[in-house]
Amino acid sequence: MSDSTQAGQLELLSPQTAAEFEHYYFFRWQQLRQPLACPQGSERDDLEHQAQHCMARINGRIIGVGRIHQDSDVAAQIRYVAVASDWRARGVGRAILDQLICHAEQYEVQYCWCNARDEAVIFYQRYGFKASAAVQTTLDIPHTRMEYYLD
């Protein structure tokens, strides 16, 4: 899937090689964990091997990431969505969610959910997610559970 941008062609792909995954995880850490003073490695969990990963690139530069995994017969969890600050509000996050939702449809689940940081709630609402509850996470920052029901 690709969109034209002024700076080049947006590529959405799943990392395949060890090097691609290392760049993917490093971007994830830089965007999501480093600002919270979390160590490298905290951007990964035990479900990486069963998840579908999406990486957005422009001219070879990673500008966004996201992941989804099926967590029950009826639901899939979206995690670790991040877009570089200079690419926010330009459709990159929406493109990543589109790709992740496609994976959810292949899982044949009823809905997707995520625990969104409070500053990201509006982004998910614009996509069609509904807030369902405040949640506590290990990051000790406010999060809201968001749900998106598939047709």
Task: Look at the structure and give the CATH class.
Answer: Alpha Beta
Q: Which value, in Å, is the CA radius of gyration?
A: 15 Å
CATH superfamily: Gcn5-related N-acetyltransferase (GNAT)
> What's the CATH topology name?
Aminopeptidase
Ranges with pLDDT <50 over ≥5 residues? 1-5
Q: What is the residue-mean pLDDT, rounded to a whole number? A: 92
Helix proportion: 25-40%
How much of the residues is beta strand, in percent?
A: 35-45%
How does CATH name the architecture?
A: 3-Layer(aba) Sandwich
Q: What string gives the helices and strands in order?
A: EEHEEEHEHEE
Number of helices: 3
- What is the number of independent domains? 1
The CA-CA distance between the termini, in Å, is 21 Å
Task: Enumerate the strands of the largest sheet in spatial order, edge to edge or round the barrel.
Answer: 1-2-3-4-5-6-8-7
**Mind describing the biggest β-sheet?**
8 strands, mixed
- Structural class determined from secondary elements: alpha+beta
Number of strands: 8
Give the CA-based shape: globular
Describe the structure.
The protein is an alpha+beta fold and 151 residues long. The protein has one domain: Aminopeptidase, CATH 3.40.630. Helix content is 26%, strand content 37%. The chain has helices at 18-33, 92-107, 121-127; strands spanning 2-5, 8-13, 52-58, 61-70, 75-83, 111-117, 130-135, 143-149. It has an 8-stranded mixed beta sheet with strand order 1-2-3-4-5-6-8-7, with helices on both faces. The radius of gyration is 15 Å and the shape is globular. It starts with a strand and ends with a strand. Residues 1-5 have low confidence and may be disordered.
